[in-house]
């Protein structure tokens, strides 16, 4: 019994498409190798076990195998060149279609013989139908084309050719049966791949997300900081780091308990995400400390964001299970300088935060341009 299908969440769909593209390359590479190995083998078997009545039949069989061979060679060449184009999936689809089409054409070629040749080719077509199901990327969606076109061509030939129906047609039932098996195999493989992808994404999300607040964690923020630092080194833009810390949060835990403290942190995370601009980022840095990253920042814009966040936290009060609590936030702000590392700009923001605490809390302080100096830029106890 197949397990329930798990759809891909919308926010992961772009990553899933990239994953499917990589899967197309891997499947196509393996299938191309198998095709180039097996085609000569089956050609020899045809000549040995079945035999050809004349030279014309030999060339017919070679020509029928040629498209699949050429597509397999093309796939291997593009794969080796590491061509970045979006060719893998359509080429894999065409290769699968050529394999089934090749066997369907041989079936049509031998249909009028009504003997051992037809049984032999029917068995080959049955195996091909099942085999290509294992090399599909989107399951049944791929098989609609891979099975549909050759099957309709075979039906049309049988109906319009006037060839007599086989005396013992029981072996022809293998073809639709194989198609049914192929649909089941392709569906199971596709759904299993989806489940594997979702599990991988969830694991990665857990590794980069703070479990309590749902915000990115320290590890995740380091990735974004590295990206902004690289852009800044190229002279493309300047960024700002805001170090934020809840005021007297220990007193909340001591007086109301850690469960209420967790509620405060969760509400705080929501206020961060609803207050910040689209390109700004926030992460839980540790305990009640949070780090905000402001791309393309100036002193004015960074301090404006800091003040906006401070006001959003201060008002209204936090609705918790212990009642409405007045919560405030102190922030240290530092603009990255060309000569400093990520750790250095964070250190300056941390020193500015310490100064904000010293000056009375519930305020934002900007780190000065000279190393080790800070000055209060905005202070408010409202």
Automatic annotation (TrEMBL):
<keyword id="KW-0548">Nucleotidyltransferase</keyword>
<feature type="transmembrane region" description="Helical">
    <location>
        <begin position="144"/>
        <end position="163"/>
    </location>
</feature>
<dbReference type="GO" id="GO:0052621">
    <property type="term" value="F:diguanylate cyclase activity"/>
</dbReference>
<dbReference type="InterPro" id="IPR050469">
    <property type="entry name" value="Diguanylate_Cyclase"/>
</dbReference>
<feature type="transmembrane region" description="Helical">
    <location>
        <begin position="86"/>
        <end position="111"/>
    </location>
</feature>
<feature type="transmembrane region" description="Helical">
    <location>
        <begin position="117"/>
        <end position="137"/>
    </location>
</feature>
<feature type="transmembrane region" description="Helical">
    <location>
        <begin position="169"/>
        <end position="190"/>
    </location>
</feature>
<dbReference type="Pfam" id="PF00990">
    <property type="entry name" value="GGDEF"/>
</dbReference>
<keyword id="KW-0808">Transferase</keyword>
<dbReference type="InterPro" id="IPR000160">
    <property type="entry name" value="GGDEF_dom"/>
</dbReference>
<dbReference type="InterPro" id="IPR043128">
    <property type="entry name" value="Rev_trsase/Diguanyl_cyclase"/>
</dbReference>
<dbReference type="InterPro" id="IPR029787">
    <property type="entry name" value="Nucleotide_cyclase"/>
</dbReference>
<keyword id="KW-0812">Transmembrane</keyword>
<keyword id="KW-1133">Transmembrane helix</keyword>
<feature type="transmembrane region" description="Helical">
    <location>
        <begin position="27"/>
        <end position="50"/>
    </location>
</feature>
<keyword id="KW-0472">Membrane</keyword>
<protein>
    <recommendedName>
        <fullName>diguanylate cyclase</fullName>
        <ecNumber>2.7.7.65</ecNumber>
    </recommendedName>
</protein>
<feature type="domain" description="GGDEF">
    <location>
        <begin position="237"/>
        <end position="369"/>
    </location>
</feature>
<feature type="transmembrane region" description="Helical">
    <location>
        <begin position="62"/>
        <end position="79"/>
    </location>
</feature>
């Amino acid at each position: 019994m197949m397990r329930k299908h798990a759809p891909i969440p919308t926010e992961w769909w772009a990553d899933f498409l990239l994953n499917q593209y990589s899967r197309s390359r891997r499947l196509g590479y393996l299938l191309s190798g198998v095709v180039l190995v097996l085609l000569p083998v089956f050609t020899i078997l045809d000549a040995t076990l079945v035999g050809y009545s004349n030279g014309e039949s030999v060339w017919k069989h070679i020509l029928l195998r040629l498209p699949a061979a050429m597509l397999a060679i093309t796939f291997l060449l593009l794969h080796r060149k590491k061509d970045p184009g979006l060719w893998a999936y359509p080429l894999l689809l065409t290769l699968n279609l050529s394999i089934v089409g090749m066997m369907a054409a041989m079936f049509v070629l031998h249909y009028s013989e009504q003997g051992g040749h037809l049984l032999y080719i029917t068995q080959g077509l049955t195996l091909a139908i099942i085999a290509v199901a294992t090399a599909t990327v989107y399951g049944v969606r791929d098989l609609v084309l891979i099975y549909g076109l050759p099957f309709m061509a075979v039906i049309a030939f049988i109906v319009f050719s006037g060839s007599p129906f086989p005396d013992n047609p029981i072996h022809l039932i293998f073809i639709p049966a194989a198609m049914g098996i192929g649909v089941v195999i392709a569906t199971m493989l596709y759904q299993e791949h989806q489940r594997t992808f979702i599990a991988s994404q969830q694991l990665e999300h857990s590794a980069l997300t703070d479990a309590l607040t749902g915000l990115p964690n320290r590890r995740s923020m380091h990735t974004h900081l590295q990206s902004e630092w690289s852009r800044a080194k190229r002279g493309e833009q300047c960024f700002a780091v805001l170090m934020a810390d809840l005021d007297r949060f220990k007193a909340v835990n001591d007086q109301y308990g850690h469960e209420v403290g967790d509620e405060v942190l969760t509400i705080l995370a929501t206020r961060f995400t609803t207050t910040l601009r689209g390109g700004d980022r926030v992460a839980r840095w540790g305990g009640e400390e949070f780090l905000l990253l402001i791309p393309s920042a100036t002193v004015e814009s960074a301090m404006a964001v800091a003040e906006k966040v401070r006001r959003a936290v201060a008002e209204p009060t936090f609705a918790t299970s212990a009642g409405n609590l007045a919560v405030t936030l102190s922030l240290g702000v530092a603009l990255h300088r060309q000569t400093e590392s990520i750790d250095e700009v964070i250190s300056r923001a941390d020193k500015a935060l310490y100064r904000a605490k010293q000056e009375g809390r519930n305020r934002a302080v900007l780190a000065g341009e000279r190393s080790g100096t800070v000055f209060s830029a905005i202070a408010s106890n409202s």
